[in-house]
Design goal:
Radius of gyration: 22 Å
Number of domains: 2
Number of strands: 6
Order of helices and strands: HHEEEEHEEHHHHHHH
Number of helices: 10
Structural class: alpha+beta
Strand order of the largest sheet: 3-4-2-1-6-5
Shape: globular
Largest sheet: 6 strands, mixed
């Protein structure tokens, strides 16, 4: 029975092993081009009594269980939390804060990057509770959608590891600071360096959407079809809503802070279809100020706009 007393079954645990096999499938190299950026990801799920951990890092002082994946060690540790329903039908690129105190020290988070994590509910409660949510054309009510959800979260972690939404490269930062200082002095000259501006963090959701959509196109066509059906239905609603808005006073339905998944449903699909061979690269590349006009990016106008758009000239739309 699904609820706060649910205990994991063999099928539940094997589903996560299966998802991990798809993450490391050779065809996913197109998306995860630098596998080292996801290798340290700890995968965490739970039932009413235990937290289950899949990691490539050995956790000292905890007995290993038999793992169903050759790359991962598998652990089970007790907890004393009452499971919230939302914890069981969602996954995200982190873990609920209440669970942090039960984790072994080796995977307790000091920052976002050293120990990337994804966490969420087990297969059976995930599917059954998604079915009970009752919204029309919900694409997340199958076993395939569960596997796709886990790959989606790996997409988030992969994008996060590129550290694009803030000035994370100290060497480059000092280069900018020095260039500006020199320009304030006589004879400072033209530094002729690419001007990187941080990417909106919402681009990470676009990357995760495209990751899930790509994997579904290859491995789970039924789930991709469900995504398409839901997308067409949802976009009819959004178009109707947008037509009734006064954008001088109201936010557009495209505003990512209002609904990040609506934002990715629109722009993720456009990017995926218009740039089928390049989206993993340019969504994880630093945007450069002026690159659209050939002013600042490496090698001239490569079209990596980040905050201002995606893609360069119209000739490149069907790559």
């Amino acid at each position: 029975m699904i609820g706060k007393n649910y205990l994991a079954t063999k099928k539940d645990l094997e589903a996560i092993n299966e998802a991990l096999r798809f993450v490391w499938h050779p065809k996913m190299k197109f998306v995860f081009q630098e596998k080292s950026k996801i290798a340290n990801t700890a995968v965490i799920s739970y039932d009413s009594k235990f937290i289950y951990i899949w990691t490539q890092k050995e956790l000292k002082g905890i007995d290993k269980m038999q793992s169903g994946h050759p790359k991962y060690l598998f652990y089970k540790i007790p907890h004393a939390l009452e499971l919230k329903e939302r914890w069981q039908y969602t996954w995200h690129a982190d873990l609920w804060k209440n669970m942090e105190k039960f984790l072994p020290d080796q995977i307790k988070r000091e920052n976002l990057f050293d120990i990337p994590r994804i966490g969420g509910g087990l297969l059976t409660p995930f599917v059954e509770l998604q079915k009970k949510r009752g919204f029309k054309y919900n694409p997340y009510v199958t076993g395939e959608s569960y596997l796709a959800t886990i790959i989606h979260e790996f997409g988030h972690n992969y994008w996060n590891q590129h550290k694009l939404w803030w000035y994370s490269n100290k060497e480059k930062n000092i280069e900018y600071l020095t260039a500006a200082k020199n320009l304030y002095q006589k004879g400072g000259g033209n530094p002729n360096i690419p001007l990187h501006i941080p990417t909106k963090s919402e681009v990470g959701e676009l990357f995760a959407f495209c990751t899930e959509y790509y994997a579904s196109s290859i491995f789970w066509p039924t789930h991709r079809q469900a995504l398409d059906i839901f997308g067409k239905y949802r976009l009819k609603e959004l178009i109707r809503e947008e037509k009734g808005k006064n954008l001088d006073k109201q936010d557009s339905v495209l505003e990512p802070s209002k609904n990040l998944h609506d934002f990715s449903l629109v722009f993720g699909k456009i990017i995926f279809e218009c740039h089928p061979k390049k989206w993993p690269s340019f969504l994880t590349s630093p945007p450069y100020l002026g690159s659209h006009y050939g002013l600042g990016g490496p090698g001239g106008g490569d079209g990596r706009l980040g905050l201002h758009g995606w893609g360069g000239s119209p000739e490149g739309r069907h790559d």
